[in-house]
Specification:
Blueprint lengths: L2 E7 L8 E6 L2 E2 L2 H9 L3 H17 L8 E5 L2 E6 L2 E7 L5 E8 L7 H14 L5
Parallel strand pairs: 2-7
Antiparallel strand pairs: 1-2, 2-3, 4-5, 5-6, 6-7
């Protein structure tokens, strides 16, 4: 499987770069943004994109309810029931993995497993 990292946010003013994973020509996060958020939850989509952009601009999210360490090296942006899982690459580079609509108190193990697998697949690209 061919995996590449596609840059989403970066310029001179940003303190962090945000990437998405593209596997065999398909983004692992774009379908979630388009089908689950933009169409079904437009307010959550706008809030989530603003949260991710704020991370790119500031290099951090101080509100621990909005950006939280989940397991191992996996983190999550949180907005209402929406989760976008990610991990850090080199420096302050952040790679978005997958998203989920959380319907229970704890993160679903399968969502975290997917993020872990994507992270492991990308480790070779980050060296």
């Amino acid at each position: 499987m061919a995996i590449i990292l596609k840059l989403l946010f970066s310029d001179q003013a940003h303190k962090a770069r945000i990437f998405e994973i593209v596997r065999n020509g398909k983004s692992t996060i774009e379908k979630f943004f388009d089908n689950e958020l933009r169409k079904k939850r437009p307010h959550d989509f706008i809030r989530m994109m603003n949260l991710i952009l704020r991370f790119a601009e500031q290099g951090q999210i101080r509100n621990r309810e909005k950006f939280v360490h989940e397991v191992e090296q996996i983190y999550a942006f949180k907005e209402n029931q929406v989760r976008v899982y990610c991990f850090f690459g080199k420096g302050n580079d952040l790679i978005l993995c997958n998203g989920a609509i959380k319907k229970q108190d704890q993160a679903r193990p399968e969502d975290l497993d997917k993020a872990r697998k994507l992270r492991n697949e990308c480790l070779g690209l980050l060296k």
